[in-house]
Amino acid sequence: MLALVVTACLNSNPTACGDQVIAWMPYETEARCLIGSRQRMSAWAQAHPEVTLVGASCMSGRHGVAPRSEYVVMASHKLTD
Fold first, then answer.
1. Which residues, at least 6 apart from 28, have a Cβ–Cβ distance to it below 8 Å?
2. What pLDDT tens digit does each residue of the chain (81 aa) get?
3. Three-state secondary structure of the chain
4. CA gyration radius for the chain?
5. How far apart are CA 14 and CA 17, in angstroms?
6. Non-local CB neighbours of 22 within 8 Å, separated by 6+ positions
7. Per residue in 24-55, is it b (16+ CB within 10 Å) or e — as a string?
8. Quick one: which of 8, 13, 15, 18 has its CA closest to 51?
9. 45 with 53: CB under 8 angstroms?
10. CA contacts within 13 A on the Cβ side of 54
11. pTM metric for this prediction
12. Taking the mean position of all CA atoms in its chain, how far away is CA 48?
């Protein structure tokens, strides 16, 4: 299982970017994961208009992977209130 990780930047501060695990995907390779995850990434981007999606990757790991930056987590969970 691979983690689908998006990299996004705040629209209000384009230099404030970070990563967020948005799903765990049942693929064996990164390439298949990225191809198979396009709809999920699109839906995530539409649900979070306060950020701009600038990249995505699939990586192996464990549940609970922390984002590299808290900005995206803040944007997607706090600024929409």
1. 2
2. 888 999 999 999 999 999 999 988 889 899 999 999 999 999 999 999 999 999 999 988 654 444 444 444 444 433 333
3. CEEEEEEEEECCEEEEEEEEEEEEECCCCHHHHHHHCHHHHHHHHHHCCCEEEEEEEEECCCCCCCCCCHHHHHHHHCCCC
4. 12
5. 7
6. 4, 5, 6, 40, 41, 44
7. bbebeeeeebbeebeeebeebbeebeebebee
8. 8
9. yes
10. 15
11. 0.71
12. 10
In this structure, what token pair is assigned to residue 53? 């999606």
| Residue 16 amino acid letter | A
